[in-house]
Amino acid sequence: MGKLVLYNTLTRRKETFEPINPEHVGMYVCGPTVYGDPHLGHARPAVTFDLLFRYLESLGYKVRYVRNITDVGHLEQDADDGEDKIAKKARLEQLEPMEIAHYYTERYHDAMRELGVKSPSIEPHASGHIIEQIEMVKRILNAGYAYESNGSIYFDVERYNRDFRYGRLSGRNLDDIVTNTRELDGQSDKRHSYDFALWKKASPEHIMRWPSPWSDGFPGWHMECSAMSTKYLGEQFDIHGGGMDLMFPHHECEIAQSTAALGKDSARYWVHNNMITINGQKMGKSLGNFITLEQLFTGSHAILEQAYTPMTIRFFVLQAHYRSTLDFSNEALQAAEKGLDRLMKAVETLGKLKAADKSTADVSELSRRCADAMADDLNSPMVISALFDWVRIINQAAEGQQSFTAEDLEALKSTVNSYVFDILGLRNEKAAEVGGKDMVSPLVDMLLNMRMEAKANKDWATSDKIRDNLTAIGIRVKDRKDGFDWEIE
Ligand code: ZN
């Protein structure tokens, strides 16, 4: 297997990735809470972990990638009190909560497909795993790290902190957490403000509820990920991922729950992507800079100067290292659009290059640079920069200033295709595909070969007719001394 070094957020250093079972890498990533349209903030974790998923597979690992759908238990302000986000949307829209969850799950899937994000191996829903969550709450209670209060179950952070350490992932200690949480108002069932709900008793008006040994209620938000990762990946698995915004409290609580129930932290490598800012500001509904993916794809938002294609967004995300912040602006996206266009044109040019007797450049340089960059904590910007150095060489080859033997040409095509399409997961949006296959190129080539024959026979009428008709549908034909070239405008 190829080598991979990953930055582990838990240990705060880069570590060589050694899976528990190389035949079966387990990866769990926190998915969306499905109560609204997928937005720019969803694109980054999805693309980041898609890159990791694709790269692990390219190294030869078999990966079981679990990404959940949160359809219950995620309350307003990520708190223990308040209305369920999905139930609230359902109330406002006068629909069943599951209609909301289903509708936005489909919207999420559509957007992910557009972005070239591969479907995970398993996509479990929190509402479909209530029994597993109740079982895990029981284990935590039996281990002595939780208490019951008026039908709700809370995690006993102080007790846990005595035996293990609460705050290891986010680097906080309990004293900081105590000073930074507000005092209880006397209305709460919790002993301490920093305790968190594992199971909540439902108030009479709460719609989403299930029976449990303690009350009719619903699981706390953090519970689903501990229960579902254990169910599908086992008590210990390789990688747990998500956005940096989930580190505290969500992932911190997941670690505490798993450790309390199983005696150990489930995940070996914690991987977090950084956030997207918009013109230097955090994205938020109240700031008026909240952009859905559909608005980006259609250009229908006041701060957008134009529409951006899904691949432009994907390329833009990949141009930054996943642990760096990424600032969205029209200029940055326009630059990404231009860069992607140049890259795709070079891929087309490469496909048309003819072999020569000797090579003027070392094609193994590209594969070495790309492999080294990916192995070093998924350095996609370095991969892109290596590809662009080769875009220049490929364009020079088209002008006759560089050449490659047949063998080198095949090797170069294989490296470029593997990184551009399989690992970075880009696709050529301008290439018209039929059933996933490029049918346009062979047809245009066939017509242009017929035109060459017509020209050879001095049948100028047919030759002009073919060129004019292609121009009319947006295909520009360029004559070259040894044949032709064409591009879609
Ligand atoms: Zn989660």
Task: State the main characteristics.
489 residues; alpha/beta; Rossmann fold; Four Helix Bundle (Hemerythrin (Met), subunit A); 3 domains; four-stranded antiparallel beta sheet; 15% strand; elongated; binds zinc ion
Task: Write up what this structure looks like.
The chain is of the alpha/beta class. It folds into 3 domains: 5-273, 3-Layer(aba) Sandwich (Rossmann fold), CATH 3.40.50; 278-423, Anticodon-binding domain of a subclass of class I aminoacyl-tRNA synthetases (Four Helix Bundle (Hemerythrin (Met), subunit A), Up-down Bundle); 433-488, no CATH class. Helices cover 44% and strands 15% of the residues. It has helices at residues 40-58, 85-93, 97-114, 130-142, 157-163, 174-180, 223-233, 247-262, 293-298, 310-318, 330-352, 364-375, 380-398, 406-423, 440-456, 460-472; strands at residues 5-8, 13-16, 25-29, 63-67, 146-149, 152-155, 196-201, 217-219, 237-243, 267-273, 276-278, 281-282, 326-328, 433-434, 437-438, 475-480, 483-488. A 4-stranded parallel beta sheet has the order 4-3-9-10, sandwiched between helices. A 4-stranded antiparallel beta sheet has the order 5-6-7-8, with helices on one face. Helix 12 (364-375) packs parallel to helix 14. The radius of gyration is 27 Å and the shape is elongated. The model has no long low-confidence stretch (mean pLDDT 93). It binds zinc ion. Zinc ion is lined by residues 30, 225, 250.
